[in-house]
Design brief:
Layout: H1 7-20, E1 34-36, E2 48-58, H2 60-63, E3 80-90, H3 97-117, E4 120-121, E5 126-127, E6 134-135, E7 148-152, H4 157-165, E8 175-184, E9 210-220, E10 229-233, E11 237-238, E12 243-249, E13 255-261, E14 269-270, E15 278-279, E16 283-287, E17 291-292, E18 295-296, E19 300-313, E20 319-325, E21 329-333, E22 337-343, E23 346-351, E24 364-368, E25 371-372, E26 374-375, E27 384-388, E28 392-395, E29 406-413, E30 416-417, E31 422-424
Parallel strand pairs: 1-2, 11-21, 26-27
Antiparallel strand pairs: 2-3, 3-8, 4-7, 5-6, 7-8, 9-10, 9-12, 12-16, 13-14, 13-19, 15-16, 17-18, 19-20, 19-21, 22-23, 23-28, 24-25, 24-29, 27-28, 29-30, 29-31
Length: about 425
């Protein structure tokens, strides 16, 4: 995960405590919980609780990782892993001294139970309320792979007392927590490395479907050449409408289906009839489409699995289907570029099969040469581009591009790069 606003982590945990504690049967009827991020001495209320961030340290595990970037100063592109240290301290200000003490101990017990029951908080973590379940994580943290791990530190009595003896205060009832490992959001690299594609080797029992490779052929024309060239890509990098092949063994049964998986899918989806599946057992061919049933297929990196079904007749004359799934193998659906035209200094890219304006943030990138263009929401200036519905991307060339020169244009959508293409600078 990556973030810049550390207070979102504190807000998340306080939201959990504030929502969950009053739901316990032991909670006093009519009592109001005050859960605060302030230091313990500044929190007041009959049932008040402080969850105070008092120390931050850099996580040694993430610090030691090798993050490769093409830049003379790589640290700005390196996520900074941090561990947050909190003190959980009840601070009742009830009138009676005994009531104050009992309230503190009740709050501590319920808070310890809650943080024990929710050791990991992610996008899907919910807590019961009087109505429907409520998501714990605030919207600003969701959808970015954030996972908060909450750990109660086994702090010795002697060490705990030093926290309070730093000033003139007496030791108080408290628990000490670590939340790790948060990543401070890095700068985005402005240069992208060349792609490296690898093929895995898998061993399976005889009779199961096995995928050895996916591949397709891509035709393109180099600048100032009239005859097109053709390359084979493996794993396959296919646009919508393009044909790709899956090679392996046992890829045909009484029924053969192609399953498509993506990190955004709850479950793999089945390619429908429009994908034109054909198989002879060792080679399966299909045509990529922007839909698989009701599921939209956007450009991006996918995994494909071949599911074969064998139908057998049982001794009682009934029939039963036996499914076998192959290993999953990578398949890239690349953004199809129909054409690129220039008018009055503005380049217009026309794409096919998806709306570029619906692609979020850095999941849509445009490179002219080795320069990454900046995405904007208004008219683009030099070195900028604008995605517009339903199928247009307008841009202005970056400074320094010579008129009449051929420059490579690369459109990257959700980590999948378009086929080789050069444009002539006007």
């Amino acid at each position: 995960m990556a973030l810049l606003n550390i207070s979102l982590i504190t807000r998340t945990i306080l939201s959990l405590l504030d929502t969950r504690l009053p739901r316990y049967q032991e909670w006093p009827s009519g009592a109001t919980l005050i859960a605060s991020p302030a230091p313990p001495d500044l929190v007041t209320g009959d049932h008040a609780l402080s969850f105070y961030l008092y120390h931050i340290r850099e996580d040694p595990h993430t610090k030691s990782q090798d993050w490769q970037v093409d830049d003379a100063v790589p640290l700005r592109y390196l996520p900074m892993g941090i561990t947050l240290n909190y003190v959980l301290c009840p601070r009742s200000s009830a009138t009676g001294i005994d009531d104050r003490t009992y309230n503190d101990q009740l709050l501590m017990g319920l808070a310890l139970k809650t943080l024990h029951d929710y050791p990991v908080i992610d996008d899907s973590t919910t807590v019961e309320t009087a109505g429907s379940p409520r998501l714990v994580m605030p919207p600003a943290l969701r959808g970015r792979g954030n996972r908060l791990r909450i750990l109660l530190r086994p702090t010795p009595v002697e060490e705990a007392s030093t926290y309070w003896q730093a000033g003139t205060q007496a030791a108080r009832l408290a628990a000490y927590y670590e939340v790790s490992a948060a990543l401070i959001e890095p700068d985005e690299p402005r240069v992208r490395r060349n792609r490296v594609l690898s093929v895995g080797v898998h061993t399976f029992l005889r009779g199961l479907p096995v995928i050895d490779r996916t591949s397709n052929r891509v035709s393109f024309t180099l600048p100032e050449e009239s005859a097109p060239r053709e390359l084979e890509f493996s794993p396959a990098e296919v646009p919508f409408g393009g044909i790709f092949e899956i090679a392996g063994s046992e890829l045909k049964g009484d029924f053969t289906r192609l399953l498509i998986n993506h990190r955004d899918f709850v479950d793999p989806v089945e390619a429908d009839a429009s994908w034109n599946l054909t198989s002879n057992g060792s080679l399966l061919t299909a045509t990529a489409r922007p839909q698989a049933g009701s599921q939209a297929i956007l450009p991006g990196l996918y995994g494909v699995t071949v599911r074969t079904t064998v139908r057998r007749t049982l001794p009682d004359a009934s029939r039963r289907d036996f499914d076998s799934d192959s290993n999953e193998f990578p398949l890239a659906i690349v953004p199809p570029i129909l054409d690129v035209q220039f008018s009055a200094g503005v380049g217009i890219i026309r794409v096919d099969g998806f709306d570029p304006s619906a692609i979020n943030g850095a999941e849509l990138m445009l490179f002219i040469g080795s320069d990454r263009m900046e995405r904007v929401t208004g008219s683009p200036g030099p070195g900028q581009f604008l995605a517009s519905p339903p199928d247009r991307i307008s841009f202005r060339l970056p400074p320094g591009v010579l008129p009449g020169s051929w420059i490579p244009l690369r459109l990257i959508v959700r980590s999948s790069e378009s086929a080789p293409l050069w444009v002539l600078a006007p």
